[in-house]
Amino acid sequence: MENDHFSAFSAVQADKLYEQVYDYVQERIRRGEWRADEKLPSVRKLAAELQVHRLTVFKAYQLLKASQAVYVKDKSGYYVSPGSSLPAETRDDPIVLANVQGGSLSEIHQVQADYQYSKALLDPNLLPNHYFSEYVKKVFDLYPKVLGTYGSIQGDMELREALCGYLAAQYHFHLSADELLITSGSQEAIDLLARVLVKPRDAVLMERPTYSPAIDVFRGRGANIVPIEISESGYRLDEVERLMQSYKPRLFYLNPTFHNPTGYTIPAEQRKRLVELAQQYQCLLIEDDPYRDIYFGKKPPLPLFAYDTEGWTIYIRSFSKYVAPGLSIAATACRPPVMKHVLKARSLSNSGTPLLNQKIFLHYFFSQRMQQHLEKLRIALAIRRDIMEEELAAAGWEWSSPEGGFNLWVKLPETVSIDKLLVESVKQSITFVPGSICDPLRSFSSWIRLSYSYLNEQQSREGLKRFVGLCRMLERWE
Question: Residue 251 and residue 190: Cα distance in Å, rounded?
Answer without folding.
Answer: 12
